[in-house]
Amino acid sequence: MDPSARIYSRFNLRLYDVVVLVVSNAWAWRCSTTLTLLPFFHKNLGESAHLDVGAGTGYYLAKSVHPLSKTGNVTLLDLNEATLNTATSRLRHAGYKGTIDEVHHNVFQPLPESLRGRFDSVSLFYVLHCLPGRMEDKGPKVLANLADGLRPDGVLYGATILGRGQGVSHNWLGRRLMCLYNKKGMFGNADDTLDELKRALERYFEQVEVKLVGVVALFEARRPKMKCTRKAS
């Protein structure tokens, strides 16, 4: 398993919300979880079927449980069984009564046939910056695979921490965390830029919106172009 996925042991997941969602987001990446990321997640969440890629602790889904009461199915996709189990447990504890499917899957591989064309929304929060490789290489592969999961009127949305480029200025804490996490293989975003992310999205979607908050890029992509996986191969 890649270091970026292996790091999420059951013990580390207990610390994730405090270390990442409270401390790092506020002080290192300068993008508030509660003021920016959670409202962004909530706004784009579909009402029928949702695919959450990189399940983490299930924080965003659990906090969005009210609109999820209308959602018949949530599918969690991750390489790590611990994150899948943790997110499912948290979502149930928050009161979600619909169907939850856990899918153990590598985002660099095409989606299983059963997941294609199925979802109103696909969320990709804090996944791209954890993947190895340059954005110009990893972005198209991952986005093409996930675009295949959307219905024609669906939306793929998410957030990723950028490494450099116009408008990206890391503070003292951010620079040190970036160096540490990239060195350990937990991050692979040292060269990720906003322009490369936007180009990757525009390759597979007709409508793309990207904005920068702190050093975090928030993106929405709609109207997926046809046969995305075949184009990426």
UniProtKB/TrEMBL annotation:
Keywords: Methyltransferase, Transferase. It comes from the Eukaryota. GO terms for molecular function: methyltransferase activity. One of its GO terms (biological process) is methylation. Residues 51-156 form the Methyltransferase type domain. This is S-adenosyl-L-methionine dependent methyltransferase. The keyword Transferase applies. Pfam families: Methyltransf_12. Belongs to the methyltransferase superfamily. SUPFAM superfamilies: S-adenosyl-L-methionine-dependent methyltransferases.
